[in-house]
Design a protein that fits this description.
72 residues; alpha+beta; Alpha-Beta Plaits; two-stranded antiparallel ribbon; 3 helices; 22% strand
C-alpha cells in the first residue's frame, strides 16, 4: 500500500496519529510525518485514519505486486 498526504491541505488535527500511530506521527506541534509504504497488515488502521481526516488530506493506494517489490 502507498500513502500520500497532501501536506498543504493537512491542518494538524492528528486524528491519523491517534488511529495509526505506527504509521503517522507529529514532529513538533503540527508537522505531520508518515511512513509512505507501510506493511499491508496495517491497512485497516490506515484506512480508518484516512477516513477520519477532517480535511481528507490522506490518500491510500493499493500497490500491484510488481510495485510492492520496487517500493520495499
Amino acid at each position: 500500500m502507498r500513502i500520500v498526504v497532501d501536506l498543504n491541505r493537512c491542518q494538524g488535527y492528528a486524528q491519523c496519529v491517534f488511529l495509526a500511530p505506527e504509521v503517522f506521527r507529529l514532529n513538533g506541534e503540527e508537522a505531520l510525518a508518515y511512513e509512505p509504504n507501510p506493511d499491508d497488515g496495517r491497512r485497516l488502521q490506515v484506512e480508518r485514519a484516512a477516513a477520519a481526516c477532517p480535511v481528507q488530506a490522506i490518500v491510500v493506494e493499493r500497490l500491484a505486486a510488481a510495485e510492492r517489490s520496487v517500493a520495499s
